[in-house]
Amino acid sequence: MASALARAFDSDLWWSFKRSPVTVASALVALVCILGALLAPWIAPHNPFDLATLNLGDAFKPPAWAEDGDPLFGLGTDDQGRDVLSAIMYGARISLLVGVCAVVFSTLVGVAVGLLAGYLGGTADSLLMRIADIQLTFPSILIALLVDGVVRAAVPREVHDQIALFVVIFAIGISAWPQFARTVRGSTLVERNKEYVLAARIIGISQVRIMLTHVLPNVIGPVLVIATLNLGFAILAEATLSFLGVGVPPTQPSLGTLIRIGNDFLFSGEWWITIFPGIALICMVLSVNLLGDWLRDALNPRLR
């Protein structure tokens, strides 16, 4: 363990990381967002979803530093008397969960399709890539809306509310796999004709094993970069769907739901209900995107 850490801190990746103040700042912001979300049940001032603790008399309280503000509610309260800071921390848990699961799902599908298309070639390659090309002609958010709409029409409302989180993850994940598939396919086309793959074929190793143990480790670098960049997109897509009212149910509000709720009161003077969740969403997505940009440059040998 100690030797692995020593090698990590002595690597080119760590050297590139510590030389970039923007990357370090982005990593700190992302770390704060992640820890705040994961530790919300223990560090949040209130539990905004415990109905027994809510008091409508606390509704629409401004931030603590404003006139008529309450020190118990640092960022104010919403229309139901929920603490905005606590709601942001709990909402970020759902946004991060959806984003990470959607990226993992799209990565698994895209890598599998790209490996098959690039390694097998021929008809399989043409068919899989034409499917990817067709999907790329549609905006990702439109595909997510289409998937959600089909599920809503196919299952009863009570069932949809129970599986809404999984539907959103699937809808966002299935809209992003072509990017992974095309990248992995291109790298696989290069790797499949190299000597180590030809040697593995000669000694009788199965094609599945060659793809998983020989080709995949050599094409995974670009996948990590795309996954990091797509994490920000997935979080933003979930917020968009929730803002439109087709994301997670209101009983499990994410940052997008909080922004939508606050938007109803924005022009009546209660600006904090939507502004602070919006700032939290911007910080989370921007920090992840900046880390993805750094990782793309750091893993590019031409820029070293």
UniProtKB/TrEMBL annotation:
| InterPro entries, alphabetized | BP-dependent_transpt_permease, MetI-like, MetI-like_sf, OppC_N
Membrane as UniProt keyword? yes
Entries under CDD domains matching the protein? TM_PBP2 (cd06261)
Q: Which superkingdom, per the lineage? A: Bacteria
Localization terms from the record:
Cell membrane
List membrane-spanning regions.
Answer: 22-44, 96-121, 127-151, 163-181, 223-246, 271-295
Q: Keywords of this protein's UniProt record, alphabetized?
A: Cell membrane, Membrane, Transmembrane, Transmembrane helix, Transport
> What range(s) does the ABC transmembrane type-1 domain occupy?
92-292
Q: Which residues form a coiled coil?
A: none
Example of a GO cellular component annotation carried by this entry: plasma membrane
Q: How does it sit in the membrane?
A: Multi-pass membrane protein
- Pfam families on file: BPD_transp_1, OppC_N
* A Gene Ontology BP annotation from the UniProt entry: transmembrane transport
Which family does the similarity line name?
Belongs to the binding-protein-dependent transport system permease family.
Q: What is this protein called?
A: ABC transporter permease
